[in-house]
Records
---
Amino acid sequence: MEIQFTLNGKMVSAEVAADTRLLDMLREKGCYSVKCGCETSNCGLCTVWMDGVPVLSCSVLAVRAEEHEITTLEGLQEEARELGAYLAAEGADQCGFCSPGLIMNVLAMERELENPTQEEVEEYLAGNLCRCTGYMAQKRAIEKYLKRTKEAQA
C-alpha cells in the first residue's frame, strides 16, 4: 500500500507492505541514523519522533506514519551537532552506535520538560542503552547541555 507522510520537513510517499516496520522504511528512505540494536524495543537506538513525540521505530508499523510527521536525526542536524559536541567533550561518544537514539531523546526531553531534575533526566532516558560507557559521561554532558539552555534563556 502507498502511504504519504512528512519526513524531516518534506512530504514523501512510500510503498510498504502491511508488516513493514517504520525503522525499515526509514532506512530505505536514507535515514541511516535509525538503527536496530535489540529487536525487542529495549535499547532506544531506533528512536524517531512521530509528531514530535519519541517512538521506537522498531515497534511501529510503517503504515502508522500515514499523514504524520516523522523526524529523524537527519532532520535535526544543527541541534544534534551541538549536543554531540557536549557528548564528545565529556568522552561520552565512544563507539557512537547508541548516540542517535540518545540524542533524539535528549532533544525531545528538552522540548517537553522545563528544567528537568536529575531524576527526571534519568527516567526520560531509561530506555537508552549504551554498551560502551558507564553513563556518567553521558549524564555530565546532558547536564551541561541543558544548563547552557537555561543560561541562554536567562
---
Amino acid sequence: MKKILIAGLVCLFLGACGVGTTNTTYSRGQIGKRGSTSTGVIVSMEVITIEGSQTGFGALAGGATGAVAGSAIGGGRGSVLMAIGAGVAGAVAGNLAEKAITSDTSYEFLVKLDRTGEITPIVQSNELGLKPGDHVILLELDGVTRIRSKMPTGY
C-alpha cells in the first residue's frame, strides 16, 4: 500500500510540471510594464514540438521511489543491493518520465510585418484559432513577442 501511495504522489508531482503556457500567460514581472505593438499577416504556420524539461525532480522522485521499492523487495543483505539498483533504475525512468510529461506541442507562425515587410517567426499556442492570411496584432513585452489578437475588421 505504501509503495502505491508513493508512486501515485510521484505521478501527481510530475503531472504538475507540464508546459502549460499560452500566448495569454504573463509573468508577474510583466504586470504594469509598457510594451509595443506592430501589425502583420500570418504567411504560414507549422506544428512544432517543445522539448520537455529535465529539472532533476523526476530523477530524484524516481530514484527515491525505486530505492524504497527495492529495499522492500530484497531481504537481508540483498535489500541494500536491491535498493541501490532499483534507485538507479528509478532515477533513469523518472528523468525520462519528466521529459516526456513536460514536452508539448505548439505552433511556429511566420508573420510578414506590415511596416518593414520582414518575415519573423513567433512560437506560441493557438487558442485564438489563427491561420495563414489572418491580419494580426503583435505585442512585444520584455523581449517576448506574441500574436495577441486578430486585427478588427476595417483596419
---
Amino acid sequence: MAILTGLEPASVFQYFEEICSIPHGSGNTKQISDYCVRFAQEHALRCIQDASNNIIIFKDGTPGYEQSAPVMIQGHLDMVCEKTADCTIDFETDGLSLRVDDGLISAEGTTLGGDDGIAVAYALAILAADDIPHPPLEVVFTVDEEIGMLGAAALDCAPLRARTMLNLDSEDEGYLLVSCAGGVCATCHVPIVRKSMEGIYVTLAVSDLAGGHSGVEIDKGRANANQLLGRALNELYKTVSYSLISVSGGLKDNAIPREAVAELIASPEATAAILSFAAKYQKIFAAEYHATEPSLSLTAIIGESGTFSVMDNSSQTRTIAALVNLPSGIQRMSADIPGLVQTSLNLGILATTDDDVSMSFSVRSSVGTEKEALVSQLSNLMDVLGGSVVCAGDYPAWEFNPDSKLRDLMIEIFEEQYGRKPVVQALHAGVECGLFAGKLPGLDCVSFGPDMTDIHTTSERMDVASVQRTWRFTLEILKRLK
C-alpha cells in the first residue's frame, strides 16, 4: 500500500508520492518531465515539452471562468539529492522511501524533495480535477532550478499569456514572497606563472565556520573562510617569507565557505614562526567573530621537505592582493524595506590550477544598476592585477510591485482563512519569479507554500496539516480570480 494513502487532500498526496517514486535530481529530469507529458495526454490537455525538459500544460477555464484572464501556476521539477553515509539509494535510478511520523513527511536517509515536488503535486491535482473552479490555467514546470535556475532561463515564454502567477516554491506557510534580488556569478581570474623551489611543505587552513546560504544568511555576520585565508596570508607575509603553491576554498558560489586552505613552502627556520603566527591569529579571529563563529579554527601543519612548483613573486603578490581587496559581503541595505539586504556579493569558490587562480562570486542586488556596478568594480581591480572577469547565469531582480492586485487578494483571503495577517516578505535570495518577471512584462506574481524544514538536507520534513491549509488557500485564490 502507498505510504501516503489516507492523507488529505488525497489527490495531492497521491501525485506527490508518484513524483517521489521517479528519480528527479537536478540534471536528471527527463523521466519526471516525461511523466508530466503522459499525465497531460491522459487528461487530454495540451502540453509543451522543450529541449531542456521544461513543461507547460494548458487547461481551459471551468464553467463561468472561460473568459477570465489566464493564471499561471509554477514550480520546478528537480530536487536536491543528499543522502546519509549508510543510505544505498542511487538517485539516478531509484525513487525515495517515504515515511510519515507525527504529521510530518520525510524520506528515509535522503532529502525529501518537498522543494519543489509539492508544487508539482498541487498543480497536477488541480489539472486532474473537474470540481475546482478556476480561470484558464497555464501550468509551468521548470527544471534545474536548484543548480542555477537553468530551466527558467532557457524557457521560451512566448506561448504564455498569463500575467498573474502563483509560484509555489516557498517553505514557510503564512509568508507571501513578493520580491527578490537579481544575481550573476562573476568569476575573477588571476593568471599565475610558476617556478620550482625547495622548501618545507606547509598548509594554512581556516575551518569549522558556520557557512550558510549567501542570499539568506549574508546578514548574519558570519565569516567567509576565503576572505579570512587571504587576510592571514597577507599578514603572514609581513613577517615570514614563504612561497605560495595554491589557495582553495568553498564548493558553491552561493554558499558562504566554511573552509579554505593555502599550500605553501617555507625555509626550515620559518616554520616555527608560521606556527606561532597561526596561534596568534587564531585568537584574533576568534575574538572578532566570537558571537557568530564559536568554532572558528586557524591552523598550520608542517609537512615534509621537497621541491615544489610555486607561484613566482609577482603571481603571489597579485593573488594575495586580489583576496585582500576584492569586496565581499553586504554592500548596501534597502532604504525601502527595513532589514532587507539590497546589494551583496559572496566569494564562494576559490581554486588554483597550474596557471590560474579563480575566485567565483555570487553577486546579488534588488537594484539592477547596483549589480552591474559591483561587477564593474571587480573588473576594474582585475584590470589592475592583470586578470579578467567572466560572468554567467545572470538573472534579473523581481522588483516589488506596490500595486499588486494578486498580493492584495491573497492577503484578504489569508486573513479570512487564518484569522491573522500574513507576512509580506522580500528576499535577498534569487527565485525563479525574477526570471519570469523579466520575460513577461507586467507580471503580477506571489510566491508561497506549505511549511517545510531543513530543506536540502537528509532531515527535510514537510508538514501534512500545512499542506492541507495551503491547498485550501490556493483553491480559494483560483476561485476568486474569476
---
Amino acid sequence: MSQAKRAAVCGLMIAANVVIMVLGAAIGVGIYICPMLAGLLLLPIGNSMGKKYQLLCYVAISIISALLVPDPEAVLMFVGFMGWYPILRPRLQKLTKLLRCIVKLAMFNCIMIAIEALLMLVLVPEVEASWYLIVLLVLGNVIFLLYDQLIPKFLFLLQHYLGRVFKF
C-alpha cells in the first residue's frame, strides 16, 4: 500500500472514530460504548499497516476528541484505556492465562478508578462517592472481560468480510 493510500485510510478511520465519539455524547449510554467501538475500529489499521500507524491514529483521535467531544468522561475513557488497550492486547496475550487475567483486570481497575477520581475531584466536585460506584466498577469489570473476548471475534469478522480491502 502506498503512503498516499495509507494516509487516506488513516484519515478516514480517524474521522469515523471522531464521529463515533461525538455521537457517544448525544446518546446517554454512548459514554461507555463509543470509546469501546472507537478502540475496536483501530484494529484494522494495526493489522494492515502496523503498530506505528495505529498509534498515530490513536493519538490523532485522542487530540481531536478532546477538542470536539462535549463529554469529558467519554474522552477520558478512550484516551485512558479503551483506545490503547487493543494496541497493547497482543503483547498481553503472550502471558500465561492466569497472569494475563490478573494483569488485565489490575490495569483496568487502576485506570478506571483514576479516571473516576479525576472526574469526581476536578470536573464535578459536588458529586459524592457512594456504594453505587463499587457496583459500577464491578459491572465495568464484567463489560471489560466481554470487550476483551470481543476483540478476536471482531478481528475474525474483519478478516472475513473486509480482508480484501485491508489486505490482512
